[in-house]
Design goal:
Elements lengths: L3 H20 L10 E4 L6 E2 L3 E16 L5 E15 L10 E6 L2 E4 L19 E9 L7 E7 L9 E8 L4 E8 L3 E2 L3
């Protein structure tokens, strides 16, 4: 029994080490954002933002309300109502991304009229559109809209996560983008 004891102890230590290594979170999870999940058409509140998805639609062409800009492609336009939660200092949606099929798409900065980086007010809704230019093959399924006040992916901060049902999105030939409006939709 004395000869087997070191082998049993060694095997036990290897198993415990494997277990500890298996349950230890990856290193980047130490600085990841905290997702605050909501559902479509539900108001979601984080430390800095309050947001709600009003509607989503696919379009083959975007134009602005003054007809000074247009673009063709596979566009997903999401109308969002947002406000600042505590302060108007740097209150804006700095980063809007769409996560689908393991891919991340950032909101287009091409449209001149966008809720992206528009100033937000405390307690007063601002309604606007955020446009995503997607590959032609991505027109169905589900996606996650992620909104953050930070321009970069937030570290150790919260981020709004709202599921978008792409199959339920309205289909239209052209969407006319309008400037963000202060007040409820």
């Amino acid at each position: 029994m004395n000869r087997a004891m070191p082998w049993l102890i060694g095997t036990g230590l290897v198993l415990v080490a494997g277990l500890v290594s298996g349950i230890t979170p990856p290193e980047d999870s130490l600085t990841d954002a905290f997702p605050v999940r909501g559902s479509a058409h539900q108001e979601v509140t984080t430390r800095t933002l309050v947001a709600r998805v009003v509607q989503s639609s696919f379009a083959e062409r975007l134009s602005d309300e003054r007809d000074e800009w247009d673009a063709e492609g596979n566009w997903l336009v999401i109308e969002v109502t947002a406000s600042a939660r505590q302060t108007e200092l740097d209150a804006e949606i700095g980063l809007a991304s769409l996560l689908m099929d393991g891919l991340v798409f950032h909101a287009s900065e091409r449209p001149p009229e966008s809720l992206l980086r528009s100033p937000l007010r405390v307690g007063v809704d601002t309604t606007g559109q955020i446009a995503f230019e997607l590959p032609e093959s991505l027109r169905s399924g589900t996606a996650q809209l992620r909104l953050s006040a930070d321009y970069f992916t937030p570290s150790l901060d919260d981020v709004i996560v709202i599921p978008i049902d792409l199959d339920a999105a309205e289909r239209t030939a052209t969407v006319e983008l309008t400037a963000p409006k202060v007040g409820a939709p």
